[in-house]
Amino acid sequence: xxxxxxxxxxxxxxxxxxxxxxxxxxxxxxxxxxxxxxxxxxxxxxxxxxxxxxxxxxxxxxxxxxxxxxxxxxxxxxxxxxxxxxxxxxxxxxxxxxxxxxxxxxxxxxxxxxxxxxxxxxxxxxxxxxxxxxx
Length: 135
What we know:
By secondary structure, this protein is mostly helical. It is built from 5 helices and no strands.
């Protein structure tokens, strides 16, 4: 089962990173999983990565707030509030679903889904910021 899970996580990272240099947070996350192959270890790795992605998200949010004109700042604030609501509701749903399944691998998948959700938003904000600075 662990071999299957490692393969699944490796496949997901491979798809996300194909042709790209891995983000440092992804590299640390991957290395953490390799070094901590227990269920508890992998969940801890996902939680640590989620915290790092949340910090990255907040960094780019603040950079965008400083760089955008007033009307766009307000739209970003509203979008971010809506995303936070979505994040919390989606997390509540996915956690409840995965926690109802038998087997410890679902704890790992639930933690990775939570991490991926934050990662996606952080990368989207970074992309906005990069686009703003290359116009």
